[in-house]
Design goal:
2 domains
Length: about 100
């Protein structure tokens, strides 16, 4: 886990999403705008604990500090650019996982 795990993520239960899509298929012809969300949003720490409980795995006690993850990602991106792989974007992925 990166950071303290307090960031929240919206998760869609696949059965609810299928039901939602089926309702949309039954709509009359024309332009329709929809917004789907399953609540409640869960923190990453809650998700890690739930997955660990369901799989019987122990939860790692170590969380990688955000600043360290961003530093590693930035170094990897720089190395990728030097090596000719300009689209690595690891630091951007770390940012999106933690902040969105």
């Amino acid at each position: 886990m990166i950071g303290n795990g307090a960031n929240r993520k919206s998760i869609a239960y696949v059965g609810n999403l299928v039901d939602f899509l089926c309702i949309g298929l039954d709509s009359a012809a024309g332009l329709h705008l929809y917004n789907y969300a399953d609540k409640p949003d869960k923190s990453i720490a809650d998700l890690v604990a739930t997955i660990g409980s369901l799989t019987g795995q122990s939860i790692p006690r170590f969380a990688l500090p955000y600043w360290l993850a961003m530093g590693i990602g930035t170094l990897c991106d720089a190395a990728a650019r030097i090596d000719g792989h300009a689209q690595a974007g690891i630091a951007d992925c770390v940012f999106r996982v933690v902040n969105q």
